Request: fold
Amino acid sequence: MTKEASPRHARDEGYQLSLQLHGQLEALYPRIEQYAAYFRVLTPVDPALPQPPGKTGGVRLDPVMCALAIKAATTKRAVLALCELGDGDNALVLTRVLLENACLLEWLIRGEGRRRLEAYVMFMSVQHERVVATVNRHEARFLAAGTPPQLISDQYHRGIWTHMFQDAKGRPTKSDRPTWQFERGSGKGEPVSVRALFREITEADQSFEHEVLYGALGSDIVHSGPFSLLTRVQRLMGNRETFVLAPMPAPDLCTLALATSNAAMFLVLDSLTEYLGLDLSGELGQLKASAQVNPYDFDGGTEQ
Reply:
């Protein structure tokens, strides 16, 4: 693609700096495999966590951490793909997803021991039972489609839900939040909101990441709202009098989306390497330093 034919944002110096950083971050991914950290077998659950009567077989933590990191890397690549198409609007939607993923990973490895991560994995029992119940309610639709439901309820999963994840009155929780915090003494737990995750990670009651990049872009606005396109449509009204239906990307948001996704991926790599015991602080430190340079200060200074 020639410079003359490239989208306007692709010729933007700030976008090019973010694009270069994206490539440098992806270049670090193979270091995870080269480190050759083996998946561990079942890990005993912290006795401070409430558990159902009988023997708890343990939890598999490593596949979940690996899957969360891969999810982040895949979303990051999708952000780039949309930016390269000039679709900053939808790229920013995925950046919001990536921000939550990054904060989740970091939050899970904090706290005492691995209790947060263990509880997160065990909450999958709640999700299993809810999926089974939902599928059973709509069994007729599945049968009509020739795909009889395969999932069945499991006594162990029900026990986890009933004895571990409870509301304030001791009933099985109705919350769909998989992030829970448990007190060591009482064993009582409560779900932790996305806002609380951001607040802890950013160490601020009013975090820019949550209030501007995540919270202000609420799910209703991000996923289905027309706000980012209203100005463009209103501008069209000056030249036409009838409806139009065609893709209408917003390239102005591409630099913001890609730069924010880079910041989120720094957090993902920090969390994953800490969990694995892999030291990439030198490489990441250099990239973080370059990311602090104001991309619009072409003399190489930093933003004042």
Observations:
- The chain has one domain: 8-123+165-291.
- The first helix runs from residue 13 to 26.
